[in-house]
Amino acid sequence: MSDQPTLVTADHFAYITERTRPEPEFLRKLKLEARKAGIPPIWISWHQASLMQILLKLNRAQQVVEVGTLAGYSAIAMALALPRGGMVHTIELDAKHADFAQHWISKSDAHDRITLHRGAGSEVLKKLKSNSADACFLDADKASYPLYLDECMRIVRSGGLIMADNAFAFGQLFDVTPTDREAGAIKKFNDVMAKRAGLHGLIVPVGDGLWVAHKE
Ligand SMILES: C[S@@+](CC[C@H](N)C(=O)[O-])C[C@H]1O[C@@H](n2cnc3c(N)ncnc32)[C@H](O)[C@@H]1O
Q: Is-contact 199 213, C-beta < 8 A?
């Protein structure tokens, strides 16, 4: 054993992929069609989706809130990990993304476990009841993450799970002059997460860095 971590390379990720439960054909097809429809390919990786599914199952999650639906990839992946009667409430501001996602959600095996809310994350989250969810996943406009986190700390029950994507700031975490306009917001949010009372979190190096946190 050592405190020195193994440097994870692209080879490790290829190795992991070969040893991860395969991505469902439906989700592969959804991504293909989303690209054809001109939707940006900024969904989470299958590694991330697998990890999130495992965490949701371990947490026995039934009610999940997501901010940022895009094409519906992560919402469907999460819903597939829920028991019958469970629900992913996913929020999307962009009408084109919401229309595409709703079409694919309706065709998916998890169609009865996803409710798509159209509108801004800040507005929809306000309407959700306190202690009404087991888990929350943030994957939308990064400047609003601190506000979304406040809402999720209210909405998610004690013992629940809070996850947020892009902790590695689109690969630009250590860039002195990052080109991505949201990189600065992510850096600030990472510090908010690290210091937030009542939250035990860790950035897991899958995809672009996934915050995984237990709400105490
Ligand atoms: C990175 S994508 C989400 C990817 C999706 N979670 C997945 O992995 O399949 C971010 C989405 O958030 C949406 N979005 C941006 N600002 C938003 C806001 N204020 N409220 C709700 N959705 C927003 C964007 O339109 C986009 O579809």
A: yes
Contact 52, 73 (CB under 8 A): no
Q: Give the pairing of strands 199-204 and 156-165.
A: unpaired
Greatest C-alpha distance within the chain: 51
| Residue with CA at minimum distance from ligand 1 atom 26 | 70
Q: Which residues line ligand 1 (CB under 6 A)?
A: 42-44, 67-71, 73-74, 91-94, 97, 120-121, 139-141, 144
Name the residue ranges covered by the structural domains of the chain: 10-215
* 100 CA → ligand 1 middle, Å: 13
Contact 179, 172 (CB under 8 A): yes
What separation in Å is there between the alpha carbon of 6 and the centre of ligand 1? Answer: 33
pTM above 0.85, yes or no: yes
103-129: per-residue pLDDT in tens?
999 999 999 999 999 999 999 999 999
> Is the per-residue pLDDT at 5 higher than 90?
no
Q: Which CATH class is domain 10-215?
A: alpha beta
